[in-house]
Amino acid sequence: MSEIDSAPSASQSVTDRAAAVPYPESALTLKALLMIHGVLSVLVGFPLWLLTLAFSAMVGDSGQSAAVLFLALFGPSAPLNFLAAYNFNRYPRKARVYLFMAGVVAALQALLLALYAIGLIAVPMILCGAVLVAGVVIAGFVLAAKAEVQLWLTRGEGSGTKRRFKSAATDLAVFLGTVAVIASVLALVWSFILFPGQRGDHDFDESEAWSNLEDAAADVVPVFTGFDGFRSRTLEVNQCGGEFRGGGEYFRYELSYEFSDAVQADPAVRSEYRLAAREYWLGEGYEAQFDRQNQNGDWAIVVHDDEDLRLAVYEGLGVDDPMELNLQTGCVKRVGTLPCLDPQGGIPPEADQITGIRCEE
């Protein structure tokens, strides 16, 4: 037999080199950690997303940016981790790429959770979630960095081009499919549980939206002991994005009343008013959406009802951070020009601001 005949082919050389690399003893543990982290990213990321929406609601934000952020940071973990574990034995070099991407996402998750844990140290769920995710991520990084794992992940592969392409296409389908499922679940929760009013399902339209908010404000004012009027009123009307059942344009109304200077200057009165509003609203059957102190020390109580009316009292920190009564509707259908409604609490015209709508005097 000639030397040419006895020389190994390129594919045989790759196979022989691959066979010479021992399978890492820590592989099973690493793959288990990948699966655990994928599950944790959903179990921790989803409630954290809900908490972020609650904070967004406090400032009147729709929370869409928070939804995108958490989908981008927590959505890819499950499919990336699964693909890294699935390809670890047969396609180690491809698994290495997935491990790198999963590691980047995991590091960003750990950073975000650390920021939340620092800012919300009194929330046990955040602390436990941060510790669990950080522990799993650190353990995963330590195992992935071991020499035996890195040697395995850089070994040669004897698969042909066609098989590699088919495998990559399958991976892409799994990744996109998983992200699509997660995004669909978030969209369903958003539309039918968190913000049902976004569908436009109300017993009232724009013709009653403003008056409903004014009525809600008038209902709670009597519980404020020694109430001496409001110092300003602001009505903002903003168009809602997205498609709505039945078509047409939909708008969200937000009405804010700032309490008087005397109330702003007295922390005891501000606290008393907040607690009085809380007791009244909960007694009337409203559901508390937020009832705690934020990072700035500002107490807030936010409630809502089945008609997607959202009522809130932000206690504020004084004159520069005013206490206000804030009331919002969900998205209501536009019907045309509306009559102007007088402000409550003796507010002068110069302290009465209306934006986003033209009303008839």
Automatic annotation (TrEMBL):
Transmembrane segments: 32-59, 65-85, 97-118, 124-145, 172-195
Protein known as: Uncharacterized protein
Keyword list, A-Z: Membrane, Transmembrane, Transmembrane helix
Taxonomic superkingdom: Bacteria
Organism for this UniProt entry: Glycomyces niveus
